[in-house]
Write a structure and sequence with these properties.
44% helix, single chain, 236 residues, mainly alpha
Length: 236
Amino acid sequence: MSFRPLASKAPKGSVSMDPNCAICHAPAALACECEARGLDIAIRQAEDHMMRSVYDDIRSWVRGHAQDYVLEYFRLLTERRKNAHTTHLDQITAHSFYHYNAPPHPNQIAEAQGALKRGIDEDWQASVQRYPEVLEYFYGLVELSLPSDDEAAVKDPPLSALNGHRKATRRSLEGSTSASSDGRRAPPALPSVPFPPTPYSGRDMALDRRSSQPLARRPATAHMSTPSSSYYGGFR
């Protein structure tokens, strides 16, 4: 109907006979929106069928790497802070023995321990607040490639004209894969990173708050069942 491409000009003497709407059977001249809405529904259903697992894999991959980065960032911050705390304790101990020939007063130790705890809380808050930029960075590393219009599978898809059965081939999704058909989009850089991200090995510690599960590999080929009548059922 309204979304159909215009047919070429009919030869002189022929009769133009556009088909009625496949949904409500209204004449083509009314240009109803039934077929366009039905196509939108079919696209959403096909996308959910074929792409949901891909989106889940991407989300899980990004989540895991972002958590690894944030945990490593936090570990480095706290390591630096604990080293400063140890140096501070050594200084007050040396000062106390030099002037009073006695260990530091317990209140001094408690004050230093409290400052360390507050600093660690600040480090964790600063690390967690980096999630938005870290997530965008790793999402920027994902690449979904579209096939060329010249490929045989695009120019001559294996669709049966008799029963409408489609043999859909899922393209493999690589782990280090920017969503562009023209080439890789450079991922945004992570600004103000004081430490290079390194593999984090302390996943058994209480700091590791990850709950993501290992990714299950999708088969390279999936078969899409014949579209059901529910695609356009709401417009009858």
